[in-house]
Structure formats: C-alpha cells, structure tokens
Amino acid sequence: MIRHVVVGVAVALLSSGGLAAPATAQEPDPHAHHAPPQDAKPIPGNVPPLTEADRAAAFPDVSGHAAQDNAVNYLVLFDQFEWQRASGANGFNWDNHGWIGKDTSRLWFRTEGESEGGSLTSAHADVLFGHSIARWWDVVAGVRQDVRPGSPQTWAAIGIQGLAPYWFEIEVTAYVGASGRTLARLEVEYELLVTNRLILQPLIEIDVHGKGDPERGISAGLSNTEAGLRLRYEIRRELAPYVGLTWQQKPGKRDSFSTLGGENFRGLRLAAGARWWF
Fold first, then answer.
1. Measured between alpha carbons, how far is 185 from 160 in angstroms, rounded to an integer?
2. Residue ranges in the chain modelled with pLDDT below 50
3. Could you tell me which residues come within 8 angstroms of residue 206 by beta carbon, excluding any fewer than 6 positions away?
4. Is the pTM of this model over 0.85?
C-alpha cells in the first residue's frame, strides 16, 4: 500500500515539473550535428536540382580502363656492339633490334652479324610485323635475309617473343627457306641487377637446321650454339659499356663441306663493347 502511494506521488511531481530527470536519462539527438547553420542561404531558383545522371557523371565506373592510345613510338637498341678476341684473332660483333608502332601493333626489325680478320663472316636481318596477344607477348611474322655466309638467302619467318615469368626475355622464331630448308632459332636473355647501375646479362642462342647446306657450311640439326656473360655499367640508362666472355660452338663434320663461312669451332672469346639505345 505504501509503495503504491510513493509511486503515485513521484508521478504527480514529474507531471507538474516539480522533479527533473537526471541528465544521464536524456537521449542525445543523433541528428543534432547535421542541423543546417543558421546563416545558410537557400539554393537559387535558377540552379537545377541534382539528378541521378549528374551523380553518374561525377562518379563514373572506371573498372577495366585501358591505358592504350594512338601515339606512334619507336625504339632502337644495340644490345651488343663489341670487339672480340680469340686465339690471337680479332673480330667484331653486333646484335641490334628495334620497333616502331603503337601499343598493340608494331613493325619490328633485327640485325645480327660478325666479322673476323676484317672480313664479314655472317650477317642477317629480319623485318617482322608484330601484334600483341597477351600483356607481355607478341606474335611476329615477316621475312629474314641472310647476307653471309654464302650467297644471299631469303626466309619466311613466324615466331613469338616476350617476357616470361621471372623476367626472362625469350624469342622463338621458325624460318622456311628455298628448297624446303627450315631453321628454328631460340634466344633467352636475363638481366641480373648487381646494383642499380651494374648489371650482369647472361644470354644463350641456339640454331637448329632441318637440313644441311654445304654452301654455307651448315649441317643438319644443332648448327650453332652461343652463350655469353656480359657485365655492364650504365653511365646513363641509354649508354652502358661492358666486358664479357662468349662461347660459340658450331658442331659438324668440316670435311663434308667444300666452302665454310667460318670455323666449325670458335671456342671462348673475350668481349668488350657498349650497349646503347635511343
């Protein structure tokens, strides 16, 4: 009975304002801080209301955006431009390639050759059209012209080139020439950064012929293998002198050919030169 009386008195006092509820019992307004300022100006009548099209234009969906454009660019790189010495004889060697074109389609060229004792012993050039088939890979097709050894010879070419996992640069090219002659060529290159400017570059090149060519001193099968190790220092990114060692081997029976474009076995050579591009 007393409890009911006390409760009734408390309710009466609260209703009349005689008692105030404690501050902790008051729930704060969650939207109080969003109230507009007192000096806010109304939006002018000539400003159109915001629409969904306006929001879409301000926040477009950029997923899958491609960074391709129509600019024409080019590169010319002399990967090898060097003097060589072996067994008392001096020689000169070059290997360069380049391209001109856009992001996915380019015209490629490659030239390679060597001389010994002041005479050109081997030289060839490729002109290829390349198209990108993946992020790091191109398919190429075109022609190759051999100048030395022997008389000039033309090949049709098709291949693939690109950057393999772990940053190996790979070129694989197949050639078909006159009289059903075939040639497969593999080139693998890697760049190991000793420092930011000191770079060690191993390289291997392998040629495999489908049939022998006596005029050019070429036997069927594995006709040429070359491995090199070059250490360069980039004075600038565009210019880097280097020193290195190369090993070249041309297996086959020397007596089976009447004319040879060079020795069957070249062995170890010392190389010094410069790598440059523009």
1. 11
2. 1-7, 9-25, 253-263
3. 185, 186, 187, 222, 224, 225, 226
4. no
